[in-house]
Amino acid sequence: MSDVSRPSTADAVPEAPAVTTRTAVVIPAAGRGVRLGPGAPKALRALNGTPMLIHAARAMAASRAVSLVVVVAPPDGAGEVKSLLDAHALPERTDFLVVPGGETRQESVKLGLDALPSDCGIVLVHDAARPLVPVDTVDAVIEAVREGAAAVVPALPLADTVKEVEPAAVPGEPEPVVATPERRRLRAVQTPQGFDRATLLRAHETVTDDVTDDASMVEQLGLPVVVVPGHEEAFKVTRPLDLVLAEAVLARRRLNDGF
Ligand SMILES: Nc1ccn([C@@H]2O[C@H](COP(=O)(O)OP(=O)(O)OP(=O)(O)O)[C@@H](O)[C@H]2O)c(=O)n1
Ligand SMILES: C[C@](O)(CO)[C@H](O)COP(=O)(O)O
């Protein structure tokens, strides 16, 4: 007897077109965390009992669009990072790789990019030091790249007035102010930063200056970079007070989630 509820070949629902471009995230996690003070490498330090880089990897894997996470581990810590990721499961849809990092953030990101399979057409770069970025921010960055932007950064307006100074030759000496940029035109930039893969690879192959983020390398190629709204909870854990804030955010989330 035939199963009448099964659609015939003629009226079968067409399959969704095969997705040929996967989205991968490179998580540079190889820094020491000097500004955080003595202790383990920053990405391995715990926030409410869970290593920071696990929070960051979960934040990326929370996006259904992300199918691969490449963690760039402290140079001598790749084995430990792999064990941590094995022990703290990511969703089944998300693969992960671990590679050892380099001397600078830029080198670490490049080592992560070198490990990407060729079918990843969209690449995000996300600091392990920004463990609490909400999934809506991750999705907004991916969406903007899918819609055609070559480089996308999440960012927030500034609360402080910013001065450009002539840096003191001797630390602690008063520094002359050179200029006060118009604050309403300034943004504090976060991660994940999202890229069309070919653009990001070209930037990393071409730009040799020291830079503090990946988007500025794309700017140096003369290509446009666009901003989408960032989020207060995507702050970077840099100094000891940031650990207190991060644990407070996690405590608030637990309360809101009702456990
Ligand atoms: N050689 C490096 C240096 C930094 N990072 C990563 O880049 C991100 C942003 O860097 P930052 O917050 O400055 O981390 P650290 O370099 O560890 O901090 P510090 O400058 O205080 O030592 C972090 O996730 C960090 O692990 C990296 O992968 N490889
Ligand atoms: C990439 C970044 O998080 C954007 O704000 C930031 O520039 C990293 O700076 P760091 O000094 O390497 O933490």
Automatic annotation (TrEMBL):
SUPFAM superfamilies for this protein: Nucleotide-diphospho-sugar transferases
Q: Which InterPro entries match?
A: IspD (IPR001228), IspD/TarI (IPR034683), IspD/TarI_cytidylyltransf_bact (IPR050088), ISPD_synthase_CS (IPR018294), Nucleotide-diphossugar_trans (IPR029044)
UniProt EC number? 2.7.7.60
Protein's pathway? Isoprenoid biosynthesis; isopentenyl diphosphate biosynthesis via DXP pathway; isopentenyl diphosphate from 1-deoxy-D-xylulose 5-phosphate: step 2/6
Which residue numbers mark the site Positions MEP for the nucleophilic attack?
R183, K236
Question: Which enzyme class, named as a word?
Answer: transferase
List the catalysed reactions.
2-C-methyl-D-erythritol 4-phosphate + CTP + H(+) = 4-CDP-2-C-methyl-D-erythritol + diphosphate
**Molecular-function GO term, any one:** 2-C-methyl-D-erythritol 4-phosphate cytidylyltransferase activity
User: Which residues of this protein are annotated with the site description Transition state stabilizer?
Assistant: R35, K42
> What span is annotated as the signal peptide, if there is one?
none
Identify the Pfam families for this entry: IspD
Query: What keywords sit in the KW lines?
Result: Isoprene biosynthesis, Nucleotidyltransferase, Transferase
UniProt key word Hydrolase? no
The Gene Ontology biological process terms listed for this entry are: isopentenyl diphosphate biosynthetic process, methylerythritol 4-phosphate pathway
Checking Gene3D superfamilies in the record gives: Spore Coat Polysaccharide Biosynthesis Protein SpsA, Chain A (3.90.550.10)
Q: Which family does it belong to?
A: Belongs to the IspD/TarI cytidylyltransferase family. IspD subfamily.
What is the stated purpose of this protein? Catalyzes the formation of 4-diphosphocytidyl-2-C-methyl-D-erythritol from CTP and 2-C-methyl-D-erythritol 4-phosphate (MEP).
Can you name this protein? 2-C-methyl-D-erythritol 4-phosphate cytidylyltransferase
What is the taxonomic lineage of the source species?
Bacteria, Bacillati, Actinomycetota, Actinomycetes, Kitasatosporales
Gene encoding the protein = ispD
